[in-house]
Write a structure and sequence with these properties.
Radius of gyration: 19 Å
Number of strands: 13
Number of domains: 2
CATH superfamily of the largest domain: Winged helix-like DNA-binding domain superfamily/Winged helix DNA-binding domain
Structural class: alpha/beta
Oligomer: single chain
Order of helices and strands: EHEHEHEHEHEEEEHEHHEEE
Strand content: 15-25%
Mean pLDDT: 69
Strand order of the largest sheet: 2-1-3-4-5
Length: 265
DNA sequence: GGTCCAAGACCGTCGGATAG
DNA sequence: CTATCCGACGGTCTTGGACC
């Protein structure tokens, strides 16, 4: 069995490479999520191993899930500053295993997942009148399909899944293009511009707005309250915040975001 | 402290180049 | 032809200094 992996903790990475190797599993650590995609594209691995390392894990999962479409198993190994199994699974991990004294729990998970047909864990998002279908890379509004390119859909996914919250430009780049890639800021702006045009195209009124947050990133806002969903309440008026923090949400993710599961699309 | 202004940084948009 | 990337340009916003 061949794996590629992303780790923050290098000592932990070395221990895993050694322990897995003794059980006939080859783990190749990668420098970035972009390198992981490249290796998978060349058929050099059957699964991806990620270290549960706080916000890095969420970025890795978002990027890999969007680009792999659930075809390749993504297993998460518990680590320092872990976000935990529930959050990892909610963000698209195929499975989760702790690695404390023994590599056996991880091996068991690997044997159960690698080489078996994958069930897509999370297939869609519903934000206000918009529904995002990850399998089809499409966005629907009021039964009207908005056709997006792969990059545009990846960008939309990250923004919609963080509706009402500011996503930094660096985080957007990491999630859409993968960490380690050197993407010009103009490229991100160009894709945001195209996405804005497509989301508003044909609609009688614009319901969402991709708001630039000066020198920080972007935030997707829902503009009109409708039955069944509500605008986010940031708690503190933006004008009460210091300049650099205006637009940053102060509370939990908004309630109008709902993940869609197979059969709901 | 409040206001004005200039400089620099940033953003939105258009259009061209390149690769598949 | 389409998707992606980047340069150019004009408009907007932020910041810091000068002045009252």
């Amino acid at each position: 069995m061949k794996l590629v992996g992303l780790f923050i903790n290098k000592a932990r990475q070395a221990a895993l490479v050694r322990d897995l190797s003794s059980h006939g599993v080859e783990l190749r650590p990668m420098p970035s999520s972009a390198a992981v995609l490249h290796a998978l594209k060349r058929g050099e691995a059957q699964a991806v191993l990620l270290e549960d390392a706080d916000t890095s894990l969420i970025d890795w999962l978002a990027m890999l899930q969007l680009r792999l479409g659930g075809i390749v198993p993504i297993l998460v190994v518990g680590g320092d500053n872990a976000v935990g199994m529930v959050d990892a699974m909610a963000h698209g991990a195929t499975d989760y295993a702790d690695y404390v004294d023994s590599v056996e729990p991880l091996l068991t998970r690997l044997r159960a997942r690698v080489g078996r047909p994958q069930q897509l864990r999370r297939m869609g998002l519903e934000v206000g009148p918009y529904a995002l279908d990850a399998a089809a890379s499409a966005v629907r509004r009021d039964d009207r399909e908005i056709s997006l390119t792969a990059r545009e859909f990846a960008l939309a996914w990250v923004l919609f899944s963080n509706a009402g919250r500011v996503v930094s430009a660096s985080s957007l780049t990491a999630r859409v293009w993968g960490g380690g890639t050197d993407i010009c800021k103009r490229t991100l702006e160009q894709h945001v511009y195209r996405l804005r045009r497509k989301l508003s195209c044909g609609a009688t009124e614009s319901v969402v707005r991709i708001q630039a947050v000066y020198s920080i990133g972007y935030r997707l806002d829902l503009l009109h309250e409708q039955p069944g969903w509500a605008a986010p309440d940031y708690g503190i008026a933006a004008t009460e915040l210091p300049l650099h923090a205006r637009g940053l949400p102060q509370e939990q993710p908004p309630g109008y975001l709902r993940h869609l599961w197979p059969g709901e699309l």
